[in-house]
């Protein structure tokens, strides 16, 4: 069994996390915390992109009414993200949160957590213990005998043990760093030390879209291939919708989950006689409304044509200002360059 098949299952709203359930995809809202409509609009966009769990920060008690309004109208389960004030966590549990996310490094200590556990138990919702490298418990952070992955894993494990000793078992744990290998080593330790608790994986503060996706795919790809991770977020300084697209693309690349098309396209070279870069971009844009997990090939020449992409469901192999549209490796029609995208989409609709 892989590690994520051994974890205890918890429910975040109607989304199963752990116990062999598919890796759940999530993101975080970045609209103003007191603007109900703005947050709901963002949730709708995230849901359309394939988000399954959404997290919302509650920076102050005055935002609790807005949080309640979002929870009551959201099509997705909403996780309350709380720092510094355990009272907000207690209130969020009463106001519709599907899960609480608290940080042991800044929530006020172990004893301050007990009423939060009681509130979550009363509401019937799980808690995510979220440890970050930048907000470790001061006593652990000061230890010279431990490396950072050990500190992160120890903080999360100790806090989880405290919760379980107080009779609360509906837990999810995360322990993130902005450094890829620190993150990987930390989660490997957690998978060994608390194998029964579902893990939320991610590289925190990964950066803007290009860097963030590469860092996240590097670290999370390693973990997911090892069977570590029950739910995930790719954190980007960008539109949260792009986090969801990146998550699904990574899961599909690892053959773990598929949602929507996969594009197979070759790098251009001197043999290419069409504007392949623009062509592939047009196909990608048109495919965003397609939900079927089909493979679509956009190939620049006969060298990388139906032969190399024979496992694609549909595709085009381009020649001198034209393209041969093929299905399952068999050419079905030839069209001028300007008609390639429309022809491809027409044939895709027939599948």
Provide the gyration radius in Å: 23 Å
What is the helix/strand order?
Answer: HEEEHEHEHEHEHHEHEHEHEHEEEEH
Gross morphology is elongated
Number of helices: 12
Estimate what percentage of residues fall within beta strands.
15-25%
Low-confidence stretches: none
Largest sheet: 8 strands, parallel
Ends distance: 36 Å
Helix percentage range = 40-55%
Task: Please tally the β strands and state the result.
Answer: 15
Structural class: alpha/beta
In the sheet with the most strands, the strands line up as 8-7-6-5-4-3-10-9
pLDDT averaged residue by residue:
93
Please supply descriptive tags for the structure shown above.
eight-stranded parallel β-sheet; 15 strands; 351 residues; five-stranded mixed β-sheet; elongated; alpha/beta
């Amino acid at each position: 069994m892989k590690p994520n098949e051994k974890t205890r299952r918890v429910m975040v709203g109607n989304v199963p996390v752990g116990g062999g359930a598919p890796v759940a995809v999530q993101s975080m809202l970045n609209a103003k915390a007191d603007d109900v409509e703005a947050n709901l609009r963002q949730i709708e966009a995230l849901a359309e992109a394939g988000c399954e769990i959404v997290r919302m920060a509650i920076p102050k008690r005055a935002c609790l009414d807005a949080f309640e309004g979002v929870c009551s109208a959201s099509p997705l389960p909403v996780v309350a993200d709380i720092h510094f004030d355990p009272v907000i966590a207690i209130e969020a549990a009463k106001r519709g949160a599907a899960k609480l996310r608290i940080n042991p490094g800044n929530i006020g200590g172990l004893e301050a957590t007990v009423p939060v556990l009681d509130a979550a138990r009363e509401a019937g919702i799980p808690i995510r213990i979220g440890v970050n490298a930048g907000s470790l418990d001061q006593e652990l952070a000061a230890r010279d005998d431990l490396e950072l992955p050990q500190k992160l894993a120890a903080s999360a494990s100790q806090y989880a043990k405290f919760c379980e000793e107080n009779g609360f078992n509906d837990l999810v744990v995360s322990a993130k760093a902005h450094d890829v290998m620190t993150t990987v080593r930390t989660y490997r330790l957690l998978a060994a030390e608390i194998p029964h608790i579902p893990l939320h994986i991610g590289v925190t503060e990964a950066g803007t879209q290009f860097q963030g996706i590469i860092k996240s795919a590097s670290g999370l790809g390693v973990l997911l291939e090892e069977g570590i991770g029950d739910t995930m977020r790719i954190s980007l300084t960008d539109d949260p919708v792009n986090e969801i697209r990146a998550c699904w693309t990574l899961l599909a690349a690892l053959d773990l989950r598929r949602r929507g098309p996969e594009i197979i396209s070759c790098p251009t070279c001197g043999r290419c006689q069409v504007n392949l870069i623009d062509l592939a971009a047009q196909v990608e844009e048109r495919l965003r409304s397609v939900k079927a997990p089909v493979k679509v090939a956009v190939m620049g020449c006969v060298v990388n044509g139906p032969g190399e992409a024979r496992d694609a469901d549909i595709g085009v192999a381009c020649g001198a200002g034209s393209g041969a549209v093929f299905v399952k490796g068999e050419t079905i029609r030839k069209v001028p360059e300007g008609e390639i995208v429309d022809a491809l989409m027409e044939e895709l609709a027939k599948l």
